[in-house]
Write a structure and sequence with these properties.
Layout: H1 9-21, H2 27-32, H3 45-63, H4 68-75, H5 79-91, E1 95-100, E2 110-114, E3 120-126, E4 130-137, E5 142-149, H6 157-175, E6 182-189, E7 192-194, E8 199-202, E9 210-212, H7 214-222, E10 226-230, H8 231-242, E11 251-256, E12 260-266, E13 269-270, H9 301-306, H10 308-321, H11 328-331, H12 335-343, H13 347-371, E14 375-379, H14 380-383, H15 386-396, E15 405-408, H16 415-429
Parallel strand pairs: 3-6, 6-10, 11-14, 14-15
Antiparallel strand pairs: 1-2, 3-4, 4-5, 7-8, 8-9, 11-12, 12-13
Family: Belongs to the ROK (NagC/XylR) family.
InterPro entries: ATPase_NBD (IPR043129), HTH_MarR-typ (IPR000835), ROK (IPR000600), WH-like_DNA-bd_sf (IPR036388), WH_DNA-bd_sf (IPR036390)
Protein name: ROK family protein
């Protein structure tokens, strides 16, 4: 099987060599594809061997199964170099043999592929009310999922770490995978997160989450290397890698659920800001509402008004005016269900949806003026509703400035988990050959 892409081999080898000899410091920048290599250093045999192995490993991951001859053609490396490097990779348990392929007239080639089951990576999405987790192989293919609702006394940092460890072990038991084969974990937190220090500065929807050293706590609890990132940023990474924003360099992911936040991509890289608070749009003021100071220990005005609880409050107020507040089948509806009613033509639900769309459109207009993104992706349990997306888009079309395209999330509630898996895969990639 011929891999192709021969004309790009030289560029690819040079890129991988630079990556191998000058690893980047920020895992989330690695995952988003931004890389400015430092000045080239003199090559050394060990560096070249490592670069060759990494090049071939990358090719196997993307294009396998294939033969060694395919790798020679696609990499531009000599046959002896490929054979030597594959032997090294195979000795590390990263290659598996599949048997003979189809012959083109001579001896049938032996097919090999990257052994994705060599190790696994885990993802955790810590929400305001529940924890969701995923386990994936080294190709990023999910092999297990796990989720649980937090009890009232389980939202403090120590309890969340304990529940997360329980979920990790449960996924390993489901799949008969030893926990020792889990090479990395990325956890998303619903608050301002210092990725470099691994600290959640504050998470208003959780209990006691101020200056929480979550990365070190999870490392101690699970024994696994860990990255900690803002949950909405992870969702943005997920959508960029394999979702609604795939291939879009400048976009904003807006998450609406229990909270409201944004993940900002500029030139293909996550934008964290000088103090890690870029995208905390839940603190934006709302036109027509009284001005109020932004206080980290409280939820922001925008979040209170169009987060899930705010939408449900608007619904209850309209039921009260209509004399329907005592109808439990109506009063107990959650925000997405209210929007479902609006989709069906219910007048009260349409009022709530219109109220939400107007406020959301104003917030998006602000983001569009500041960042001028090509695309806005709406996600989260509330934001991904198709009717809300269409109504918001209609309101934005009236602007003279070219509005961004509006699209709902392709990955839905799995976006954070897929983004976390992407970061973990990038983090372990350089260590596979060590």
């Amino acid at each position: 099987m011929c891999i192709g892409l021969i004309s790009f081999a030289g560029i690819f080898v040079k890129f991988v060599y630079n990556l191998a000899t000058h690893p980047m410091e920020n895992p989330s920048r690695m995952a988003t594809g931004t890389f400015n290599p430092p000045e080239t250093q003199p090559s050394r045999p060990a560096h070249l061997r490592f670069a060759n192995c990494r090049t071939l490993l990358q090719l196997l991951r993307v294009h396998g199964p294939c033969s060694k001859a395919d790798l020679v053609r696609s990499s531009g490396l000599s046959a002896p170099t490929v054979s030597s490097a594959i032997a090294q990779i195979e000795a590390l348990g990263l290659v598996e043999t599949l048997g003979e392929g189809e012959s083109s007239g001579g001896r049938p080639p032996e097919l090999i592929q990257f052994k994705a089951s060599h190790g696994y990576v885990a993802a955790a999405d810590i929400g305001g009310t529940r924890l969701r987790m995923m386990l994936a192989d080294l190709n990023g293919t999910p092999v297990a999922h796990w989720s649980t609702q937090f009890a009232a006394d389980q939202k403090d940092p120590a309890s969340v770490c304990s529940v997360l460890d329980e979920g990790l072990r449960a996924m390993c038991q489901q799949t008969n995978i030893p926990t020792s084969k889990v090479l990395h974990l990325t956890a998303g937190a619903p608050g301002i997160t210092d990725v470099r220090a691994g600290i959640v500065r504050f998470a208003p929807n959780l209990t006691g989450w101020t200056e929480v050293p979550l990365r070190s706590m999870l490392r101690k609890q699970t024994g696994i290397e860990t990255i900690v990132e803002n949950d909405t940023n992870l969702a943005a990474v997920g959508e960029y890698r394999q979702g609604a924003a795939e291939g879009v360099e400048d976009f904003v992911f807006v998450a609406m659920g229990t909270g409201v936040g944004a993940g900002i991509f500029l030139r293909g890289s996550l934008h964290h800001g000088a103090r890690w608070s870029a995208g905390e749009i839940g603190y934006l003021g709302v036109p027509g509402a009284p001005r109020e100071p932004m206080e980290m220990h409280k939820t922001g005005q925008l979040e209170r008004m169009i987060g899930g609880a705010g939408i449900e409050l608007q619904w209850l107020e309209r039921l009260e005016r209509a004399g329907l507040r005592n109808e439990p089948e109506l009063a107990e509806l959650r925000a997405p269900q209210i929007f479902d009613l609006a989709q069906e033509g219910d007048l009260l639900a349409l009022e709530v949806l219109q109220y939400t769309a107007v406020i959301l459109a104003d917030a998006i207009a602000t983001l569009a003026l500041v960042f001028n993104p090509e695309l806005i992706v709406l996600g989260g349990g509330v934001g991904s509703h198709d009717r809300l997306c269409r109504e918001t888009d209609r309101l934005l079309r009236s602007a003279d400035f070219a509005p961004p395209r509006i699209r709902t999330s392709f990955l839905g509630t799995q976006a954070q988990l897929h983004g976390a898996i992407s970061l973990s895969l990038t983090a372990v990639e350089s260590k596979l050959l060590c």
